[in-house]
Design the sequence.
């Protein structure tokens, strides 16, 4: 178990631009915008949810104008918005159905018509601020105030921000998040995709006291560099009811927090991307890269299959000194499509990065169990807190050691046990976990976590018994090539899953090919490695232990070798790509 390792994990990775336009701080940002607005007929400031709306509005009201329009005043009433979104939010506490709404659906037609007439008739400077501002009118200058989803979630938890067209900041976090995931973010992403080429400036207010402004050219320079060289998104860490202590040491996290269960280090829908422009960090949602450079990033075959979606997810689950995860199952593709509007489901795997001697995972069903009896016991445990579900009677308890790889196609019952550090490699859809049993514990909020036996029993693959589990899901290793310095192994995933994984164990340089798919890798053994271009198309890129990094399909060929204190020593990477 690695708890004495010197930490070198980079929590703020960035993409460096030596040239570009950037302004930092309200004085410089405001002065620049005011100067630009002097000779401007229409200034639009469009935005994402999660910004401090009223605060930002007040900053732009300081600019001299003849007419100031707040788009919130043009939207339909709260009751109308509730009616508009009801079918997508559903009555379920966690799950909704992905929306097909557009930002145009939110506007009151009469209010919108009147506002557009006023804009046309006003001779001076008109400022349009708020959600869908660029839909209201095309600005002579357009600014977009963006916000990464992870920061939005922190603000939701603190009850600081509202959803699109509703005043819901005092609702439970789960309800706010559900509205964002299934509706608001889909609506605003669709709108943002339509205006990337018209936005003149991008505004970062993650630190609302120290905003940053970049121009269109700088934005796209960042997208071009990220889509043609290895990079990392900004990881974020979160406590969990079962969380452990490993990441505190290895990733150098806040020791005063009770535990950290999750590290999300490759979830582009939620992670940030940092551009370091002339030494100043500009933060934006990393999904912007997927939306603007999907073919270069994903590869043409992957884009053709998934569109502008990033299909591979890496995250770390830490139960070292913690507890078992909830016993759970992910839906089948058919169930996910019919019930949530998803085009694919959350197939996954557990790669064991570290483990104690008695570590284990629960995986697959024991041969010969009675499904009806198991469901009856799960339902009894759900309604009777005194009833203990006998998980060992029904589910295989598989010993787990470092560098094991367990495959978990949708429909497979599973959970990581305590005292284990798991790299979870999965297809991207998040949230879609049906908890079946949670060991009689409470969530971090002191309340029981939602159990989904009713949904779970509809997707459990009952045929995945002990024989199936050990034959098809446990350590399906195959040596593909081997020299004195490099061994390449195929480790999965299961044939039902579209992700392919390769493990490289090496003491010298390894040549990799992207093969028309984005590559996602993690350094699971070794202090550091360096990723290099054969033709000098990108700068050498250093990766540290436990860091996940992304290599765009456009790179085509690259090498990885031990670096620094790891030179001459054995290193191990695990790589995921999409089967084409």
Sequence:
């Amino acid at each position: 178990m690695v708890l004495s390792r010197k930490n070198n994990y980079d929590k703020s990775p960035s993409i460096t631009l030596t040239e570009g336009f950037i302004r930092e701080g309200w004085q410089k940002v405001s002065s620049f915008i005011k100067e630009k607005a002097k000779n401007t007929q229409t200034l639009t400031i469009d935005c994402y949810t999660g910004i401090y709306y009223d605060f930002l509005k007040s900053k732009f009201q300081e600019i001299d104008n003849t007419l100031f329009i707040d788009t919130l005043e043009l939207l339909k009433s709260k009751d109308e918005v509730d009616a508009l979104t009801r079918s997508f939010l559903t009555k379920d506490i966690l799950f909704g159905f992905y929306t097909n709404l557009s930002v145009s659906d939110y506007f009151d037609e009469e209010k919108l018509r009147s506002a557009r007439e006023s804009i046309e008739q006003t001779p001076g400077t008109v400022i349009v601020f708020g959600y869908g501002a660029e839909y209201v009118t095309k600005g002579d200058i357009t600014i977009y105030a963006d916000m990464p989803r992870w920061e939005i979630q922190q603000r939701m938890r603190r009850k600081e921000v509202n959803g699109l067209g509703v005043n819901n900041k005092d609702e439970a976090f789960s309800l706010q998040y559900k509205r964002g995931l299934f509706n608001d973010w889909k609506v605003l992403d669709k709108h943002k995709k339509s205006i990337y080429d018209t936005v003149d400036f991008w505004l970062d207010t993650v630190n609302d006291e120290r905003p940053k402004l970049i121009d269109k050219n700088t934005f796209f320079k960042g997208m071009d560099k990220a889509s043609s060289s290895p990079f990392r998104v900004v990881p974020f860490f979160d406590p969990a009811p079962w969380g452990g202590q490993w990441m505190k040491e290895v990733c150098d996290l806040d020791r005063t927090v009770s535990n950290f269960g999750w590290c999300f280090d490759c979830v582009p829908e939620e992670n940030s991307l940092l551009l370091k422009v002339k030494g100043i960090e500009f933060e934006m949602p990393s999904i912007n890269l997927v939306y603007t450079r999907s073919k270069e990033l994903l590869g043409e075959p992957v884009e053709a299959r998934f569109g502008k979606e990033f299909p591979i997810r890496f995250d770390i689950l830490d139960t070292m000194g913690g507890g078992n995860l909830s016993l759970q199952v992910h839906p089948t593709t058919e169930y996910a499509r019919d019930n949530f509007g998803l085009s694919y489901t959350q197939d996954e795997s557990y790669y064991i990065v570290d483990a104690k001697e008695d570590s284990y995972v629960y995986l697959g069903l024991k041969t010969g169990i009675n499904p009806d009896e198991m469901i009856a016991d799960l339902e009894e445990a759900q309604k009777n807190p005194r009833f203990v579900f006998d998980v060992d009677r029904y589910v295989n308890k598989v010993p787990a050691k470092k560098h094991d790889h367990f495959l978990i196609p949708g429909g497979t019952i599973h959970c990581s046990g305590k005292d284990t550090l798991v790299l979870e490699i999965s297809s991207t859809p998040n949230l879609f976990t049906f908890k079946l049993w949670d060991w009689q514990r409470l969530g971090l909020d002191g309340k029981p976590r939602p159990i989904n036996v009713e949904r779970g029993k509809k997707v459990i693959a009952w045929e995945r018994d002990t024989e199936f589990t050990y034959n098809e899901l446990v350590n399906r290793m195959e040596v593909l090539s081997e020299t004195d310095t490099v061994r390449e192994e195929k480790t999965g995933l299961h044939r039902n899953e579209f992700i392919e994984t390769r493990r490289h164990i090496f003491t010298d340089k390894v040549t990799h090919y992207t093969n028309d798919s984005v590559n996602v890798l993690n350094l699971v053994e070794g202090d550091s490695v360096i990723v290099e271009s054969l033709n000098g198309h990108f700068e050498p890129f250093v990766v540290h232990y436990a860091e996940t990094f992304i290599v765009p399909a456009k790179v085509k060929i690259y090498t990885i070798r031990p670096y620094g204190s790891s030179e001459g020593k054995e290193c191990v990477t695990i790589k995921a790509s999409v089967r084409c």
Q: What stands out?
A: The first strand starts at residue 15 and ends at 17. The domain at 478-578 is CATH 2.60.120.10 (Jelly Rolls). The first helix runs from residue 26 to 37.
